Amino acid sequence: MGRQMTEMLKGTLEGIVLALLTGKPAYGYEITTLLRDRGFADIAEGTVYALLVRTEQKGLVDVEKRPSEKGPPRKVYTLNTQGDEYLKEFWTTWSFLAERLEQLRDEGN
Amino acid sequence: MGRQMTEMLKGTLEGIVLALLTGKPAYGYEITTLLRDRGFADIAEGTVYALLVRTEQKGLVDVEKRPSEKGPPRKVYTLNTQGDEYLKEFWTTWSFLAERLEQLRDEGN
DNA sequence: TCGTCTACTTAGCGTTACTATGTACTGGTA
DNA sequence: TACCAGTACATAGTAACGCTAAGTAGACGA
User: Fold this and answer.
1) Separation CA B14–CA A105 (nearest Å)
2) Do A7 and B6 make contact, defined as CB atoms within 8 angstroms?
């Protein structure tokens, strides 16, 4: 992973994961594959699990343990009301930043 | 400053500052005011100075000391060739991220 | 003299993503 | 049976970055 991308993901990866959870609950391993499918090929598993633990501690997601046919039990994460609220703030913050950056890039010639 | 914004600025603030330097050299204090004018009202001075030190150590900018009429001498930063290269990479990285996020937001309903 | 504006510096902190490694279960195959 | 790949989660240690807070220092007006 490039250094720039690593730093840029700080703060955004959380939003990305929460956005992936809107409407459809998912478990950690599943989320890492979803991320890979979306082009985030180099995000380490450990990163995702640590992030999920944090979001749970912040009370943004509800967790349910379900047996798997293929391995250890899955921890299924569901976005709750607080998480939805938090995600809205995320989009607001991101929009602000994206607008300023777009403007800067346009000026760049 | 919101926690989300603080985290999101990691990685992007550097690009923002380098972008501000394209074409027109500037000194630290000036850059903080430029940032404020652009809506980044809450970015601490210390943050900017530390960032400038880092960019200098990475060899992305050239520095020149010039006397000021109103206080201590200014350290004027100019984007050099390496910095320009780095900024290009920044835009590439950011575009990638912005596209994925835009897509995610669109799906969000 | 005091406060304000200009201008830069730095030590310590919290948060985050990455690296690396480990545990544990299932199923296929040699 | 032994081994390996795939599934699924966990965690200790590290690097990088932005923030807080405090400081130094010069110019200038009240």
Assistant:
1) 14
2) no
The whole-angstrom distance between B91's CA and the closest CA on chain A is 8
A9/B11 touch (CB, cutoff 8 Å), yes or no: yes
Q: Name the residue of chain A whose CA is nearest to B91's CA.
A: A105
Q: How far apart are CA B32 and CA A22, in angstroms?
A: 37
**Beta strand segments in B5-87, E:** 26-27, 61-66, 74-79
pLDDT digits (tens, 9 = 90+) for B28-85: 999 999 999 999 999 999 999 999 999 999 999 999 999 988 889 999 999 999 999 9
Query: Which of B4, B11, B98 is the closest to A98 by Cβ?
Result: B98
B3-100 placed in CATH 1.10.10.10: yes
CATH match for A3-103 among 1.10.10.10, 3.40.640.10, 3.40.350.10, 1.10.3720.10: 1.10.10.10
